[in-house]
Every structure is written in structure tokens, then in C-alpha cells.
Amino acid sequence: MNSLQLIEFCNRVFEKYDKNKSGFIEIDELTTLLNNLAKEINSQLPTQKEIDYIVNYLDTNNDNKISKTEFQKLGKLMVKVLGSA
């Protein structure tokens, strides 16, 4: 997956989980996304501590919500992790 494809994929996922159409992924929306991902790959649901860690990793401006740009970090991380599996 090249950079443009990754950005387009991240934007589609972002739009799907930005349920209130605020232009941000809030913590409850990110939790839903992560729970759905865990179910999809037959993994245990993330703990609140793990969700908090991911929020802290992604939320570079510390506003407790994830912008599209910040969200792209999750996509890059997923590609890196899944690519090495």
C-alpha cells in the first residue's frame, strides 16, 4: 500500500467512525473502532488502559480527540504491524 492509498483508506475509516460528523474521532468513537477491529481479527477487546495509550499516542495536540492527520498515524502503525506479521 503506497502513501496515497494509505491516506485514502484512513480517510474512509475516519469518515465511517466519525459518527457525529464533528471532523474528529472522539474517545468513544475510537473505542468502537478498536473494539470492532479486535472482533474482526478474533482478538480480545482492548482494555481502557490500552485505549488511553492509543489516544495519547495519536493525540499530538492533547485535545482529547483525533483529527484526520492524527488518525493517519494509526493507519501507518497498522500497516507496519500487519506488514511484519
UniProtKB/TrEMBL annotation:
Keyword Heme belongs to the record: no
Keywords: Calcium
PROSITE patterns per record: EF_HAND_1, EF_HAND_2
InterPro entries hit by this protein: Calbindin_Ca-bind, EF-hand-dom_pair, EF_Hand_1_Ca_BS, EF_hand_dom
A molecular function GO annotation: calcium ion binding
Domain EF-hand: from-to ranges: 5-40, 46-81
Protein name: EF-hand domain-containing protein
The species this protein was found in: Paramecium tetraurelia
UniProt lineage: Eukaryota, Sar, Alveolata, Ciliophora, Intramacronucleata
